[in-house]
Write a structure and sequence with these properties.
Chain A: It comes from Ruegeria sediminis. Chain A: InterPro entries: BPD_transp_1_N, MetI-like, MetI-like_sf. The complex is a heterodimer of chains A (about 325) and B (about 550). Chain A is mainly alpha-helical and about 325 residues long. Chain A has a domain of about 180 residues: MetI-like fold (Orthogonal Bundle), CATH 1.10.3720.10. Chain A is built from 14 helices and no strands. With about 550 residues, chain B is an alpha/beta fold. In chain B, the strands form 4 sheets. Chain B has a 6-stranded mixed beta sheet, sandwiched between helices. In chain B, strands 16-17-18-13-19-20 form a 6-stranded mixed beta sheet, sandwiched between helices. A 4-stranded antiparallel beta sheet of chain B has the order 2-1-4-5, with helices on one face. Classes of the chains: A mainly alpha (about 325), B alpha/beta (about 550).
Amino acid sequence: MHPIIKLVSQRIALGLLLLFGASALIFGLTEALPGDAAQAVLGQAATPESLANLREEMGLDRPALTRYVEWLGGILQGDLGTSLTNKLDIAESVGKRLGNTLFLAFWAALISVPLAILLGLLAVRYRNRWPDKLISAVTLTTISIPEFLIGYVLVYFIAVKLGWFSPLAMINDSMSIWQKLSAIALPVIVLTMVVLAHMMRMTRAAILNVMQSAYIETAELKGLNNFKIIYRHAFPNAIAPIVNVVMLNLAYLVVGVVVVEVVFVYPGMGQYLVDHVTKRDVPVVLACGVIFAAIYIGLNMVADIVAILANPRLRHPK
Amino acid sequence: MSDPLLKVRDLKIGATVYPPGEKPHDIEIVHGVSFDLQPGKVLGLIGESGAGKSTIGLASMAYGRGGVKITGGEVWVNGRDILKTSLKDIRALRGGEVTYVSQSAAASFNPAKKIMDQVVEAAVEQKKFSRKQAEARARELFAKLGLPDPDNIGDRYPHQVSGGQLQRCMTALALCPEPDLVVFDEPTTALDVTTQIDVLMAIKEAIRDTGVAALYITHDLAVVAQVSDEIMVLRMGDMVEFGSTDQIINNPQKEYTQALVSVRSIDHEEKQPTPEPVLSVQGITARYKGLNFDVLHNVNVDLHPGQTLAVVGESGSGKSTLARVITGLLPPRDGDIVFAGRTLSPSLAGRTREDLRELQMIYQMADVAMNPRQTVGTIIGRPLEFYFNMRGAEKRKRIVELLDEIELGEKFMDRYPAELSGGQKQRVCIARSLAAKPKMIICDEVTSALDPLVADGILKLLLDLQKIEDVAYLFITHDLATVRAISDSIAVMYQGRVVRYGPKSQVLSPPFDDYTDLLLSSVPEMHLGWLEEVVAHRKMESAGN
């Protein structure tokens, strides 16, 4: 068997194992919280008898392990359970929310990833000169300011003063793609500013590291100009670390957008999760947790696989 | 006389240095060197490290490595002073008119790109050839340089070919754009001696067939004697002597050149084996974890007290692995290490402090074998504390004694490794191992990273210390000249097996086995025409078989 197939299948198996572990951890932690779904539903009206009745009705009196296996089995069949608070099927509500979050993340990634890599390349090309310093200063400033603050500042200047975009990022199915894009413009800008610095700095560091190699000197002695040296000879060898940090930031775009979604009242996963955490809607919290874990593990697995594929020694064994 | 291709006048090159504890400052490393190179001729630049030979070679491409800057003088290539042209013109010169072959092709090829893409890149970039023409030319060069499967080898990645093959690919890379001048910077130094001979011949024939001029940089006078028309001897950034190859080799005028030519002047009388060996390696078979083949097969050698056993072989022959087994770093699969009459535990963890003390080691890279933040006194004092519990004045006295023994003296006690030269660092490492009063020292390529004259000094020191301290050496090396100089007995290793073993006089006398014959005949000799003689001899032999 080609060693790369072996390595990649190992990564995938490891990812699945990790996801399984994460699901157990999430389930275990919600179990460990004081109170349960029955208490949350009954609230002030809870008496010992009504609690016991409701628990039996909801199957909460059975052992945790049995419920975990059932829950896991449901997830594997696409059944995420029913929300306690609004009695809706979670898979259906999550589906729409997740679509919205991914829509937002997609556009933020589409702008930020190429921009970060381009800025990283520029910073290397003009290393220690003013373009490099300017790029570093600006990106580090934007990452240092809390995202809700950037969000409100943008809302104030761009939406309120200039009136270019709507301050609220409400989208729905009846909107055209252009209306949607206009609506999410501000959150996309905020997210881009937040994730840009990491990726740009890592691109810069990874390429600078490669620039020390003897083969860069060879390229220089071939009379190539700096851009060709960076693009042709340094970048291909810096892919693995860059992909790693890109994937971490993509994961953040999906999983960590809670604050931005709340600021712009965007109907995504973050808002959905926050709403239901306050209502102690355990099945929803569980479902969101597993989805976030799956996205995180999945993206990191992709990063690992790309790093394996980018290594010519593994791709073309002797 | 036609116009020279390369005309260097009063070339001065500077660099910024960062000495520990001082402010960075600029120093001059080449002090006004002048020479001419005619088209189609080969000039050898020879000298020890720090002589400025690579720096001068790269200056012919208007390039300074790291913080190196060309500070004065003129470098004329094809009738124009390249130090006064724009960066754009310099880029057109590099990779077009002047190309470069580095010491380590393995590092100089981009691991992520196919060999062919890299070989033709300069020719295409400089618009010398179309991509198609350049590829055809590359395949021609691959064939000329004796690479296997020249039509397809370009499709491979650098890690898929051997070191010697990659060095030839690098030569093809340099010759592909049809340059006027190629700078060869120690192109065979990193290769095994048996590989070197083939690469050397390939380079020589390629130079002859393409009519290209070359600067051939090396520290090995015997090598440069085989390929160059003229030789320039450099020392500390100054030209010592310039002359035809014949004159420099056979009739050197300057004292320094004479020293370079006559290096390896050590005469060592072979000692007789004693009845009780200090080290007896008995039937050692070993493999590394995760490998499914043995790297040592049934190795049996003895080392006698106060004597030197040289273990010689090419890279991959298992000689360093043998050292790892003896020191306990790699427990063997089979066999015993008997040391001073007792069988040692196969693993390091099972050995007593006395075992550790009596068996010391000196490494190839002296500078990474020492803690850069400790002074020489601390480094040498550590084994004194550890093994003998010495403190204060007693320890200090012993350190000074050891410093005297290695011919450095008390004034070195408070210096840091960074303030020492390569040879001095290796001397400190020797003192550190002697401090433990060992019965035996494993010397792993201890002179390979040093210049010939410095290496000579280290070998002499080791022999003197052997007489005083009565210590035995297991001397691991790939250099047969070193073996001749210091050993009492020799073990020749090839692919994990000892193929020849015995007293020096016997191992180095005919009749030879095939491998020892190949190894011995591959060591460059310092006379003109040696390369052709060996190659012709080998061709005759293979025709005879």
